């Protein structure tokens, strides 16, 4: 392992605001020393790691950071808006917002194989990002939200560390990875100290292919909208019930399957919505959150009445294994 990629034993675990402030001051200086007057490009997804890196870089180099937020149409409700509000409006970042919704949904039309979907989304993301990068002049560095578990897992051959590592080599960037020696809980403490909103700092994990893997079968705009709206209701109800931040991951899935129901006294042949809420330590094994009956009834009532095209809600009691967290 390269020296700079080893966490020194003497490095104290960042658990307090004071330790986070000391880390921030040190990184701001080190970023300035590394990049000087050059520009840094960053793919900003709105996830905690890239958001913390963005906030650190804004503090260190201001307008010399160029953030690119790609909306592939598979983000959760309100997510692109939150990224623009926090980084462009409040932190005054140099942010390029790329609306690539039609492009991604067009390529995904009729694609049913889960791995092919993932592949298309991943490849296209790199293409869009590389296109934006090639339009800009004088970019020498690429910011990355690599964290310590990525380095360890990559060293141990568990998974290739990827972030946006699949960029074409001709772009020829040097990396800026200010949180690469931190664990996830430390990144969150630093994020809070940098003033990022709780919704970003304590955001539950969200897969790269986004809602695309929660819309099993060929993605259509109306079913994707049903996933997005039902997910927003679930998140709202979990927040009201004090479960947000306590349950590890929770979301809805709307498979390409319809059943007969009744709405307004008439036959309604509509989709069903599956609610999934799991807890885990390492994501290798997961248990199911025992959602209280009244809460589940409220969620069911809201989803079936507020989301067009859904007439039933099911709760998934399957742990991992035998299920996986996601459906695809
Ligand atoms: P599974 O479904 O494999 O999910 O039990 C384990 C964790 O990984 C997330 N996940 C992904 N994250 N790209 C990602 O960045 C993906 O393709 C992907 N697939 C699953 C999932 O949300 C869960 O947290």
Topology:
Blueprint: H1 17-35, E1 39-43, H2 48-61, E2 65-71, H3 79-90, E3 94-99, H4 101-108, H5 114-135, E4 139-143, H6 148-155, E5 174-176, H7 184-193, H8 198-201, H9 221-240, E6 249-253, E7 258-263, E8 266-280, E9 286-288, H10 293-306, E10 310-315
Parallel strand pairs: 1-2, 1-4, 2-3, 4-5, 8-10
Antiparallel strand pairs: 6-8, 7-8, 8-9
The chain binds xanthosine-5'-monophosphate.
The site of xanthosine-5'-monophosphate (XMP) has 11 residues, from loops.
Keywords:
binds xanthosine-5'-monophosphate, 2 domains, alpha/beta, GMP Synthetase, Chain A, domain 3, five-stranded parallel β-sheet, globular, 328 residues, Rossmann fold, 10 helices
Structure description:
By secondary structure, the protein is α/β, with parallel strands linked by helices. It folds into two domains: 17-201, Rossmann fold (3-Layer(aba) Sandwich), CATH 3.40.50; 215-315, GMP Synthetase, Chain A, domain 3 (2-Layer Sandwich). Helix content is 40%, strand content 19%. A five-stranded parallel sheet has the order 3-2-1-4-5, sandwiched between helices. Strand 8 and strand 9 form a beta hairpin. Helix 9 packs antiparallel against helix 10 (293-306). The protein is globular, with a radius of gyration of 21 Å. The mean pLDDT is 95. It binds xanthosine-5'-monophosphate. Xanthosine-5'-monophosphate is lined by residues 118, 205, 207-209, 249, 283, 320, 324-326.
């Amino acid at each position: 392992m390269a020296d700079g990629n080893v966490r020194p034993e003497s490095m104290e675990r960042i658990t307090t605001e004071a330790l986070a402030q000391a880390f921030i001051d040190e990184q701001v200086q080190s970023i300035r020393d590394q990049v000087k007057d050059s520009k840094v490009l960053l793919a900003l997804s709105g996830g905690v790691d890239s958001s913390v890196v963005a906030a650190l870089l804004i503090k260190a180099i201001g307008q010399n950071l160029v953030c690119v937020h790609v909306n592939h149409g598979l983000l959760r409700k309100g997510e692109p808006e939150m990224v623009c509000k926090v980084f462009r409006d409040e932190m005054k970042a140099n942010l390029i917002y790329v609306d690539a919704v039609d492009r991604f949904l067009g390529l995904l039309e009729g694609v049913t194989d889960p791995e092919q979907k993932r592949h298309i989304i991943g490849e296209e993301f790199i293409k869009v990002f590389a296109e934006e990068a090639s339009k800009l002049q004088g970019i020498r560095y690429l910011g990355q939200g690599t964290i310590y578990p990525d380095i360890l897992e990559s060293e141990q051959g568990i998974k290739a560390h990827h972030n946006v590592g699949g960029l074409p080599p001709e772009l020829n960037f040097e990396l800026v990875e200010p949180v690469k020696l931190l664990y996830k809980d430390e990144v969150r403490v630093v994020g809070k100290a940098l003033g990022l909103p709780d919704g970003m700092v304590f955001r539950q994990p969200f897969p790269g292919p986004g809602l695309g893997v929660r819309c099993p079968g060929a993605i259509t705009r109306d079913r994707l909208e049903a996933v997005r709206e039902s997910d927003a209701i679930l998140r709202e109800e979990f927040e009201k019930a004090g479960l947000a931040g306590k349950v590890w991951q929770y979301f809805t899935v709307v498979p390409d399957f319809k059943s007969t129901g009744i709405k307004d006294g008439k036959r309604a042949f509509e989709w069903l919505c599956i609610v999934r809420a799991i807890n885990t330590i390492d994501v290798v094994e997961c248990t199911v959150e025992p959602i209280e009956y009244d809460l589940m009834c409220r969620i069911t009532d809201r989803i079936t009445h507020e989301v067009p095209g859904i007439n039933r809600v099911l709760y998934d009691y399957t742990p991992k294994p035998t299920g996986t967290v996601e459906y695809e």
